[in-house]
Amino acid sequence: MKWQTTEQLKQLLCRLVQYPSISGTEAEVRLAQYIADQLHTLDYFRGNNELVQLHPTGDGRYFVTALVKKAEQVRDTVILLSHFDVVDVQDYGAWKDAAFSPEELTKRFYEQKPQLPADVQADMQAGEWLFGRGVMDMKCGLALHMAMIEQACHGKFDGNLLLLTVPDEEVNSVGMRTAVPVLVEIAEKYGLTYRLVINSEPMFTRYPGDKTNYIYTGSIGKVLPGFYCYGKETHVGEPFAGLNANFMVAQIANELELNTDFCEVFSGEVSPPPTNLWQTDLKEDYSVQIPHRAVTLFNLFLKQKPLDDVTSSLVEVAKRAAKRIEEHYYVQASRFAKLEQSTPKSLSVHVWTFAELRKKAVEMFGTTKVQELEASILAENMNKDEREKTIALIDQLAMLCKDFAPMIVLFYAPPYYPAVNSSADPLIGQLVAKLKTYAQETHGVSLVEQHYFGGISDLSYVGLQQSPASLRAITDNMPLWNRDYGLPLDALAKFQVPVLNVGPVGRDAHQWTERLNVRFAFETVKAWLEYTMKEVFAK
């Protein structure tokens, strides 16, 4: 067999990494074809060519499926999930030319070890590490899954394996969102019963220096709340005649950045607090008119908290920011008025959700006018990022309602990752207990169960643990919902499968020091995956 020894898997990983499959690039498309071609070299797929497929995502990219059937009457199936896209390599600096050449980059790093951070040097002293973009996030997981598929082709497991590897996990997860309806169709076509979806994202540290070995029984959720601020335009020579939107978004950032009130604690696991991902005013050119329209976006993790409660909390943030804006404006206006011997003015800032803003626009201009405007904006911005499209839609609707300014509008931008947790599933409970014992007795490794994988993953789209009605807080306030973005809710309702993440030890995801512990991955974790497959199919 070709993908079973440590050296074989290391070479497979290096070939996968050599495709610079940054999300949205041509290499991401070419890598999907390469994976399919490699799977077709296995004798089983030479005789069952149709069981390896490239599926279009609708935007020029593809995800790959490869099904190994144990026998015609066998239904029990494990899905092996991975992604093959990576983030960019600008952070590599002088080493950027070798970021996708793991062996070359690793050689350079060992030769120039004193230039590396102390924790990286310590790792290099203690084990065999491979450096490069994607080695741990998560082309190692893909390589391991291809090894499991090869074993299944040789009849090793008493059930079916279905490999699913997707693009775009690092941005909008279009690959996984497109794949879910296809997985439902594949199950119906081939008579499959999905018992487990197993991902092999690398272990993520929970705090600096964390060396714990984790197994994950769920994946953290995420929303991208935004706040659009519309102040009042004025010349810089008359600042109290207007309201600067940059000042408005700064007050929101001051309220929400690292606000631990939004951290969720579940079984001792704490979600990270919200942090800012995007903040800008919407002036297109320099002038001495103050920026009176601005926007800010935040990453916010989810576990158990209902979306209605999340939205209500975010509205309260906006209201507190609005009050601070009003108070600061009046205090400063009063001080300035004393200098000028004039009368200070006060102002009032409205706080709305996007649904409320759109309702105002419809009341003022009618449904047809608003729908025509939205269609026009999407057409004009069709080649832009989903966040930019979202902001453009809100901006134009706000300008229709500018008589109500100043205002703060809460909205959601793509992507949305639902939280998923299979900790209470009986099969998952049995697998985790047995795998912990196996890892300790066979490899001397203590595994700790974590209920939510903290790195965000496509496991979020396995099933739907919220009712469609509970999603209204998102769907009503996401301008792109069912336009350029959405979830296959009907398919998700049918795709109710427990999840588990068993992955390698890596360090520094999305950093120039990204690295993989090679022997641990291709010996220890490989054995864990083999053991897990056997236990799932055990009668």
From TrEMBL:
What is a GO molecular function of this protein? Answer: hydrolase activity
Note the InterPro entries from the entry.
Answer: Peptidase_M20 (IPR002933), Peptidase_M20A (IPR050072), Uncharacterised_RocB (IPR012166)
Pfam families registered for this protein in UniProt: Peptidase_M20
Q: Which PANTHER family match?
A: ACETYLORNITHINE DEACETYLASE, PROTEIN ROCB
The protein here is known as Arginine utilization protein RocB
Q: Which organism is it from?
A: Saccharococcus thermophilus
